[in-house]
Write a structure and sequence with these properties.
Layout (H helix, E strand, L loop, with lengths): L6 H10 L20 E6 L5 E3 L6 H13 L25 E7 L2 E7 L2
Antiparallel strand pairs: 1-2, 3-4
């Protein structure tokens, strides 16, 4: 599945939502593998040097598992999923709403 953002953006999004946290690793010791790049760091691995989050198999597998079980969904980025998340019906009841207009907030009671 293609994700609609970079893995770095996805990590920050999931971190801010308290879904993921840094996974700490000990720094690699010589001899270093061919893919090791001393100029990049991985946010998922707490800033460890050697690879970027865009090339991090551990983070990619974690996101794949999250997608599979429904923790991470991208359909919400493209508008509400009304079929999957229908609004509750409010038969014969008023519904309160708060409208934000620049710096003032107005509470309104709607009735049928």
């Amino acid at each position: 599945m293609l994700i609609p953002m970079t893995y770095g953006e996805l990590y920050q999004n999931q971190f801010n939502a308290h879904i993921v946290s840094p996974f700490y690793l000990k720094p690699m010791q010589p001899p270093l593998p061919k893919w090791y790049d001393a100029n990049v760091q991985c946010e998922y691995h707490a800033g460890i040097t050697g690879h970027s989050i865009e090339n991090c198999p551990s983070f990619k597998k974690l996101i794949e598992r999250f997608i599979k079980v429904g923790i991470v969904r991208f359909d919400d980025l493209f508008g509400p999923n009304v079929a999957g998340n229908p609004l509750l019906s409010h038969p014969d009841q008023g519904v309160n709403v708060i409208i934000e207009n620049e710096r003032k907030r107005t509470k309104t009671e709607l009735r049928r």
